[in-house]
Amino acid sequence: MSDLSASGIPTIRITPSDAADAYGRVDRGDTSGGVVGSFGSVLQNALNGAIETGHTAESQATQAIAGEGNLTDVVTALSRAELALQTATAIRDRVVQAYQDIMKMPI
Question: Are residues 47 and 83 in the same domain?
Answer without folding.
Answer: yes
